[in-house]
Amino acid sequence: SVEFTKWNDERRAQHAVSFAYRLLYELRNFAQHRGLPISSINVAGRRSTDTAPMVYATQLRLRRDALMVDGFDWAKLKPELERQPEEFDLLPLVDEYAGILEALVLDVFMTERVRLVDCVRYMEAIKRVLQLPDGAQPAMFLGEAQQAGTPPPRMEIIPMNQLYWLMRRWDSLTTRVHPPAEDGGSIAPKQAI
User: Can you give the pTM of this predicted structure?
Assistant: First the structure.
């Protein structure tokens, strides 16, 4: 579809410009085929005053050379990985990657927004007509009942709660992520997540 092609082009563009995207993409493969790539986990706690609560900071450290000697094929990422410091913190890269992924998800929501709004209207009509209480999970029974007074054995759930979850997720994303530009411009996180 045209929509998928546009979204995939944006995904590829984000991959092309973001070291974090490329690294995390390959780290998934590394972790699956080699092992956990974390070299150390550092946790430090500080108090601003003697009575203030402890505030913790965490670092997930990677050792560049340990990643390189394992024999994993880093392919096109190898030169970039070689330019990294001997040891570096993974968390800022994870934040950047998560922001990009959330922006890509928001792009899907924005592309499908008319259909999603229509679905919500339809679900609200079902809820109103059937007088369903909040949180109810409606279902449709299909076929003929085998006995009088019992529903047919085949049933399909109407995914009303899942749709509402999606809508809450969409709303949450729009508060943290810049929506894609109507003119096809780039999508980007509003802030580090």
Answer: 0.72
